[in-house]
């Protein structure tokens, strides 16, 4: 899998500057499921890549950036990975669980308003 220079740069910034404080992990079930902390996750991406299900499981909500003391943009990095996967022809139909997840997570039942405060 070939990732774009933009994706590599976004991931490198996170892997080199994340201080593993864990603030973003507190509210994000996705991060809790797939990593010990973002630094470790993005280092893994840069050295061996990630399973496509991982970038597709981020909801791109931006909550992590709001609470991060460095305002690291994890959502931008995951979105860039997703663009690269599409450009490489990884079809979404191979990710049916993601389709179900996105359908449910945008339903009224599971949708809340993120006001961006740090509480
Ligand atoms: S943008 Fe992704 S990583 Fe950040 S809090 Fe939302 S789901 Fe978690
Ligand atoms: S909040 Fe920012 S610095 Fe802290 S673990 Fe998350 S990405 Fe790293």
From TrEMBL:
Give the signal peptide as a residue range, or say none if absent: none
- Ranges for domain 4Fe-4S ferredoxin-type come to 49-77
Check the record and name the InterPro entries matching this protein.
4Fe4S_Fe-S-bd, 4Fe4S_Fe_S_CS, HdrC_iron-sulfur_subunit, Helical_ferredxn
Q: Does the keyword Acetylation apply?
A: no
Keywords recorded for this protein, A-Z: 4Fe-4S, Iron, Iron-sulfur, Metal-binding, Oxidoreductase
Q: What is this protein called?
A: 4Fe-4S dicluster domain-containing protein
Q: Which Gene3D superfamilies match?
A: Alpha-helical ferredoxin
């Amino acid at each position: 899998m070939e990732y774009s220079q933009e994706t590599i740069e976004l991931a490198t910034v996170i892997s080199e500057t994340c201080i593993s404080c864990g603030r973003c992990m507190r509210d994000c079930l996705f991060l809790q499921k797939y990593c010990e902390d973002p630094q470790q996750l993005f280092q893994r991406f840069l050295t061996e890549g990630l399973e496509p299900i991982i970038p597709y499981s981020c909801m791109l909500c931006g909550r992590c950036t709001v609470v991060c003391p460095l305002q690291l943009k994890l959502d931008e990095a995951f979105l860039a990975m997703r663009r690269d996967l599409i450009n490489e022809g990884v079809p979404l139909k191979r990710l049916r669980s993601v389709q179900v997840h996105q359908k449910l997570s945008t339903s009224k039942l599971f949708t809340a308003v993120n006001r961006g405060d740090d509480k």
